[in-house]
């Protein structure tokens, strides 16, 4: 086959590829919850789809951030994406604030999201309860910016943890509402939320989601934690007074450890139960800790290398902003035209 023909075939193949968008806030050090609930699925889908993975710094400022820390976490989050195996050659990796169309579309979509809908968002209710001194309008309209992120790229699929499901449903509602008024404008996105790992719980309070904003460091495992720290945190994980490793209602701590172990080993719950038959919780916790620590080790090594090369990370940011910006502009222009805004050539 001639080179041109090969390129043409490749183009047709690429055109058919569906698109993925997802993002993570640089609001702290990323946790095992972010890794299992999001990044691992980003990787899984990366070859099969055209993927855009964003560091959503504009979302992060709905809660007060120390500027130097926000900047550092932004570099770190990008470095973690790459260290986990998301190559900037195969995926568009970028920073949200580098593509101004997110904020512009967010304003527009805010006029198609209802006050009542936003008031019902459970994350808004939780976050405002925890930040009673700073219940700002951004916290309230946060899901509109998230809808803009997704709809701007006409994403077909959005890999997220279960905590983002309600926001995703709102993005679908906004897209359908807009399409209903102006005709087909946005792809209505689906969520990608696999059962195992969709909600990793705190190791200290297994009825609570593992979160990077937890003030108890024993509650979460950071992707960048040292091996000893990881193993220690798993050994201290809160379980129950039973001693059989089995997945069952009411055994939140053990269920959580089983889902983490299953995510890293690919073993089913039945296989895990057989593996630890006759063994106590102590052996199981050590095995989970060692497996997670071994799995994260290469990521930490690559992360440390990348963080010494800021200019490389900046070149990735720049390339990503250009690629994402081109796609974003296409949708924004289409939307503005439909709305009746005057477009200057
Ligand atoms: P964020 O930054 O809180 O979390 C990033 C991703 O990690 C998932 N996640 C978890 N999954 C399983 N168990 C956990 N304990 C856990 N903790 C976090 C989250 O579900 C998420 O997928 N609003 C989003 C960021 C965002 C976004 C978007 C996502 C902004 N725009 C557009 C998708 C598409 C957020 O705050 O995620």
Note the topology:
Layout: H1 3-16, E1 19-24, H2 32-46, E2 50-55, H3 57-60, H4 67-83, E3 91-95, H5 101-110, H6 115-119, H7 122-130, H8 137-152, E4 157-159, H9 165-182, E5 190-192, H10 227-235, H11 252-265, H12 269-275, H13 281-307, H14 310-339
Parallel strand pairs: 1-2, 2-3, 4-5
Helix pairs in contact: 4-13, 5-8, 5-14, 8-9, 10-13, 11-13
The chain binds tryptophanyl-5'AMP.
Structural features, described:
The protein is globular. Helix content is 57%, strand content 7%. The protein is built from 14 helices and five strands. Residues 1-9 have low confidence and may be disordered. It folds into two domains: 3-193 and 310-339, HUPs (Rossmann fold), CATH 3.40.50.620; 217-305, Tyrosyl-Transfer RNA Synthetase (Orthogonal Bundle). The longest helix has 30 residues, at 310-339. The strands form two sheets. It has a three-stranded parallel β-sheet. Strands 4-5 form a two-stranded parallel ribbon. With 345 residues, it is mostly helical. β1, α2 and β2 form a beta-alpha-beta unit. Tryptophanyl-5'AMP binds next to β1, α2 and α8.
Concise structural overview:
The protein is mostly helical and 345 residues long.
What attributes does this structure have?
two-stranded parallel ribbon, mainly alpha, 57% helix, disordered N terminus, Tyrosyl-Transfer RNA Synthetase, 345 residues, Rossmann fold, globular, single chain, 3-stranded parallel beta sheet
């Amino acid at each position: 086959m001639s080179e041109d023909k090969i390129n043409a075939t490749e183009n047709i193949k690429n055109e058919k590829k569906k698109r993925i968008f997802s993002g993570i806030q640089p609001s702290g050090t990323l946790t095992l919850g972010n890794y299992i609930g999001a990044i691992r699925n980003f990787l899984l889908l990366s070859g099969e789809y055209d993927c855009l993975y964003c560091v959503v710094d504009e979302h992060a400022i709905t809660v007060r951030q120390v500027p130097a820390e926000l900047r550092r976490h932004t570099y770190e989050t990008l470095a973690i994406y790459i260290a986990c195996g998301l190559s900037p050659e195969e995926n568009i990796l970028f920073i949200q604030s580098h593509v101004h169309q997110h904020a512009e579309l967010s304003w527009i979509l805010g006029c198609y999201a209802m006050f009542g809908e936003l008031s019902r968002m459970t994350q808004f209710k939780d976050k405002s309860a925890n930040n009673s001194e700073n219940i700002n309008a951004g916290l309230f309209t946060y899901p509109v910016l998230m809808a803009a992120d997704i709809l701007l790229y006409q994403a077909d699929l959005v890999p997220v943890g279960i905590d983002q499901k309600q926001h995703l449903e709102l993005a679908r509602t906004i897209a359908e509402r807009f399409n209903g008024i102006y005709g087909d404008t946005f792809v209505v996105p689906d969520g990608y939320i696999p059962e195992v790992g969709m909600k990793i719980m705190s190791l200290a309070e297994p009825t609570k989601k593992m979160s990077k904003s937890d003030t108890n460091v024993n509650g979460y495992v950071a992707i960048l934690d040292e091996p000893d720290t990881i193993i220690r945190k798993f050994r201290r994980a809160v379980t129950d007074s039973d001693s059989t490793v089995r997945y069952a209602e009411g055994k939140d701590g053990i269920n959580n450890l089983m889902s983490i172990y299953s995510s890293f080993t690919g073993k089913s719950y039945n296989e895990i139960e057989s593996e630890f038959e006759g063994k106590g919780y102590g052996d199981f916790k050590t095995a989970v800790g060692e497996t997670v620590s071994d799995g994260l080790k290469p990521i930490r090594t690559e992360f440390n290398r990348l963080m010494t090369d800021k200019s490389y990370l900046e070149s990735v940011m720049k390339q990503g902003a250009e690629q994402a910006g081109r796609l974003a502009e296409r949708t924004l222009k289409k939307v503005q035209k439909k709305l009746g805004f005057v477009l200057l050539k």
